[in-house]
Design goal:
Transposase Inhibitor Protein From Tn5, Chain A, domain 1; 2 domains; nine-stranded mixed beta sheet; three-stranded antiparallel beta sheet; 18% strand; globular
């Protein structure tokens, strides 16, 4: 239809210069400008066997861009390979597979990938990504496997697959770490939590952990003495969920009604349903580090909700341990509740490659998980450095529709290439401005 009238469509195959995925070039270029591509190539230099072969850093960069672009398996590299005018030559699926396989065979190479990611993060922070404080959120999730793979196991919710442990930085929304785990591994497994915790800390650029306040958050799975003791050793604050059972229930019943204060909405206003009280003086916390506090939130169950054995007098309760000294417990409880944003990051990563750990070998799936983390950060760095307003916070699916998958005509004249966007595309100005800002980012040294 055109102007309300039906039209006859005639198809011809003689077009020239039309390209799609123009916005995804931003992701590729941000990887280059932050030095990620070069750092990956340098860290994996031993893998390049001939001078004419693909640079390892470019292969991994293209894999990460493919995931950020919406791909979920190696075959989706063709989406970039078929756009050679935009992305240049892209490695074949078999070349990418062999690279992942070789990295998986040598743990030192996987560490090199993590170090390259951390080096690029340091550059991104210098360019403007650095947060004003550091809050580390750790959470596990379930990923379904549809075939028998190394490490896949029955899950406690009745599925079959994996249970990766993910870590994010709340203020900037960056991905700090991910540990692939069997599906039957408990969320409170201390060894896994410590590995993820240390990988996350290694991603924070030098100096920032000393200059900025750092807080570690988790749900009740994080209430492990070994993990909390590690936080104290590192000078990091903690705020972790705590089970409402036994003596905690008794402490809740002993709280006087006037000790409950209104909980807060995210904008600072009082919640219509919710109160907070401190239980520290009503329960023995001597086994936890000095200064540990126990804070509880109560709220009326929603209509139709089924109460559990830990509920009392029509209320539902949630408690958490923290060593923060802020006297306003409502602010501390709101801060703990903000940990739920990690679940949003996990959901978005499942739309960015995490929904499938595609290889039979568990070590190769760990490499894939590292690529998911890089893809996550390429999106976040692009949003923070190049975009404004709603697009700077948009989830991947929306960002792909509005910017990343936009088609345009690429015209060449003399030594200049002009990308001609559709004149009436609603977000053409934002995409044009993003490319202009990209051009102002400094090139990596060396």
């Amino acid at each position: 239809m055109r102007d309300g009238r039906p039209v006859t469509v005639v198809v011809s195959a003689d077009g020239d210069g039309v390209v799609s995925r123009t916005g995804s070039v931003l992701l590729s270029q941000v990887a280059d400008r932050t030095g990620l591509t070069g750092a990956l190539t340098a860290g994996l230099a031993a893998l390049k066997q001939r001078r004419s072969g693909y640079e390892p850093g470019r292969v991994l960069r293209d894999l990460a861009v493919m995931l950020a672009d919406g791909g979920d398996c190696l075959a989706d590299l063709r989406g970039l390979r078929d756009q050679q005018l935009l992305f240049g030559e892209v490695a074949s699926d078999s070349t990418a597979y062999r690279l992942i396989e070789r990295i998986a065979d040598h743990p030192a190479l996987l560490d090199a990938v993590r170090r390259a990611h951390a080096a690029a993060r340091a550059v991104a922070w210098r360019l403007g990504v650095a947060p004003e404080r550091i809050t580390i959120d750790q959470d596990a999730t379930l990923v379904t496997a549809h075939s028998l793979k190394d490490g896949a196991a029955p899950q406690y919710k009745g599925g079959f697959g994996f249970a990766p442990m993910m870590v994010y930085l709340d203020e900037s929304g960056e991905a700090l770490a991910g540990v692939s785990r069997p599906g039957n591994r408990a969320a409170h497994n201390v060894a896994d939590q410590l590995v993820a915790f240390e990988h996350a800390l290694a991603q924070i650029p030098d100096g920032h952990a000393r200059e900025l306040p750092v807080l570690f958050r988790a749900d009740s799975a994080g209430a492990c003495h070994e993990l909390i003791d590690r936080c104290r050793e590192r000078g990091i604050g903690f705020s972790v969920g705590y089970g409402v059972i036994g003596r905690v229930q008794a402490a809740i019943r002993a709280v006087s009604e006037d000790a409950w204060v209104p909980a807060l909405e995210q904008d600072g206003s009082e919640r219509a349903n919710g109160h907070v009280a401190e239980l520290s003086g009503l329960i023995n916390l001597s086994t936890w580090p000095e200064g540990t506090r126990l804070i509880c939130r109560r709220e009326r169950a929603h209509p139709g909700a089924q109460l559990s054995f830990s509920d009392h007098d029509g209320y539902r309760f949630q408690a958490f341990l923290t060593d923060q000294s802020d006297p306003d417990i409502a602010i501390l409880e709101r801060r703990q509740r903000q940990r739920a944003r990690a679940e949003d990051h996990i959901r978005n990563d499942k739309d960015t490659g995490l929904s499938k750990l595609p290889f039979r070998d568990s070590e190769m799936n760990q490499v894939w998980l590292e690529l998911v983390l890089i893809a996550h950060d390429l999106i976040r760095w692009t949003q923070i450095l190049l975009l404004d307003g709603e697009l700077a916070k948009a989830e991947p699916k929306r960002l792909r529709y509005r910017l990343l998958h936009v088609a345009a005509r690429l015209a060449f004249h003399a030594r200049t290439a002009t990308l001609r966007l559709q004149a009436n595309w609603p977000w053409r100005t934002e995409l044009q401005r993003a490319f202009a800002r990209l051009a102002t980012l400094p090139l990596p040294s060396g």
